[in-house]
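User: I'm curious what two different proteins look like when written out as structure tokens. Can you demonstrate?

Assistant: Sure. I'll show them one after the other, since each token string lines up with its own sequence. Here's the first protein:
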Amino acid sequence: MHRIQNLRKRAGFEVTDRIVLSYQAPSRLRRALERFREYVMAETLCVELRESEPEGEASSAEQIEGLEARLGISRTPQR
């Protein structure tokens, strides 16, 4: 959560911007993301969470408990 929020901040997103999050991670981190999917999406205003090549307006490689996760975010169009 913290790393996603920091990535949003570095990208200059507004607090209210909705995002699409793409990620690649080892199985242990993937399982954690899937287990807490709804919570992560709600807390980060994520409308789509997908396991794919990280892409979007901002991306980063993050160390989480000694494992590398690659994250990418993009804003969704405002409605």
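Here's a second, unrelated protein for contrast:
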Amino acid sequence: MTKDNLRTFFGWCTVINLGILFYWFLAIFFAFDFVFRTHTWWFEISEERFDEIHYTMMGYYKLAVLLFNLTPYLVLRFAKFSR
């Protein structure tokens, strides 16, 4: 696997994962009642706890995307490699 293949892979992983995060945000923002009702159907949870869990997990997910996808992409993009 070449560095160009890895760079392309990490670039698309970043785009896909940020798209998932954006979709998650939109689902919570525009369909909060539906998502909350769906989760409370499965689990006994308060609205405050639901907010806390989702926004905490969104933060962890964003941090993981930045650490494991974007950082390797940027390193491969800007680092000078010698042969």
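A detail about the second structure: DSSP finds three helices and no strands in the chain.
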